[in-house]
């Protein structure tokens, strides 16, 4: 069943004349008759009867007409809205994100957003995940991009993807030439990890405990750039997001397995708040960018 079938049916039901209905729909009478027969074949009922020169709608046709009329009205209203130029968006959109997302994802999304909405101003704050959660909860920012905060009634969390954590070491580290390292092999290894208060540290601790590994944590840092710089200058290792891993020659990125530590990044919005058009637009762009990235990775 196609939309044109319903339009032809509604026109004939109103006109009760093939001549007038065909003229109204700008088709020949034979075309209209053929389309009505196709619709009748699909629904399994006669929709019109011919009594002499008169056309009358059947009981089946009368039953179908109200829902057809409503459907066509909704379709036409949707098409009208699409053709109507929307009011240009203005105002300020405030976003909070952790360092990982602020390296590439946020700039990519902002470039597309600002190109489409030249009247918008965007404020992006780079902060720790705990601060992202707090500022979304208190309404200080419109959107947070961070990791699953777990059971926060004041927040909506929309997962974006599952992210692998990797081992980062300097070029002279004992693991530097390895392609993969089992998590248990980090037992007694000297490392720099996120602070105990961070959600990432909680994820790493759970993964390490599951295999009985206890690395020697000699430094705790939440700033990824500072952590990576410390790894470059020392014999320490760290565990970071693959997205945040720089492509430097003096740093080695090694896959972790058995198990692979995983994080779930996503979108944080305040519960009960209806997204305004600007926020909806930015979220739509962000979802598409993430999907494009996932498709590129899977190739």
What do you see in this structure?
There is one protein chain. The protein has 10 helices and 14 strands. It is of the alpha/beta class and 299 residues long. Strands 4-3-5-14-6 form a 5-stranded mixed sheet, sandwiched between helices. Strands 7, 8, 11, 12 and 13 form a 5-stranded mixed sheet that branches. Helix 1 crosses helix 2, helix 1 packs across helix 4 and helix 6 crosses helix 10. The protein is elongated, with a radius of gyration of 30 Å.
The whole-angstrom Rg is 30 Å
The major sheet is characterized as: 5 strands, mixed
* First-residue to last-residue Cα separation: 37 Å
> What structural category arises from helix and sheet content?
alpha/beta
Name the poorly predicted regions. Answer: none
What order do the strands of the largest sheet run in, or round the barrel if closed?
4-3-5-14-6
Please count the beta strands (DSSP E, at least 2 residues each).
Answer: 14
- Chain-averaged pLDDT: 87
**Outline type:** elongated
H and E order: HHHEEHEHHEHEEEEEHEHEEEEH
**Strand residue content:** 15-25%
Number of helices: 10
Percentage of residues in helical conformation: 40-55%
């Amino acid at each position: 069943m196609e939309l044109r079938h319903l339009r032809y049916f509604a026109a004939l039901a109103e006109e009760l004349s093939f001549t007038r209905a065909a003229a109204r729909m700008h088709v020949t009478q034979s075309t209209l008759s053929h389309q009505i027969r196709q619709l009748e074949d699909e629904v399994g009922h006669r929709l019109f009867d011919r009594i002499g020169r008169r056309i009358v709608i059947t009981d089946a046709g009368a039953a179908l007409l109200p829902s057809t009329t409503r459907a066509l009205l909704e379709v036409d209203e949707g098409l009208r809205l699409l053709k109507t130029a929307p009011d240009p968006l203005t105002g300020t959109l405030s976003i909070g994100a952790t360092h990982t997302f602020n390296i590439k994802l946020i700039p990519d999304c902002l470039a597309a957003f600002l190109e489409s909405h030249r009247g918008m101003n965007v404020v992006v704050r780079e902060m720790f995940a705990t601060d992202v959660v707090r500022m979304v909860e208190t309404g200080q920012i419109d959107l947070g991009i961070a990791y699953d905060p777990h059971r926060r009634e004041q927040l909506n969390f929309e997962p974006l993807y599952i992210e692998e954590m990797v081992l980062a070491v300097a070029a002279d580290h004992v693991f530097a030439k390895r392609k993969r390292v089992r998590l248990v092999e980090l037992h007694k290894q000297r490392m720099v990890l996120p602070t105990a208060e961070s959600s990432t540290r909680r994820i790493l601790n759970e993964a390490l405990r599951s295999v009985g590994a206890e690395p020697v944590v000699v430094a705790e840092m939440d700033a990824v750039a500072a952590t990576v710089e410390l790894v470059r200058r020392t014999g320490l290792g760290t565990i970071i997001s693959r997205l945040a891993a720089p492509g430097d020659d003096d740093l080695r990125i090694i896959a972790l397995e058995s198990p692979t530590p995983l994080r779930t990044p996503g979108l944080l919005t305040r519960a009960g708040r209806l997204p305004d058009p600007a926020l909806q637009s930015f979220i739509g762009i962000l979802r598409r960018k993430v999907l494009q990235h996932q498709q590129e990775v899977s190739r």
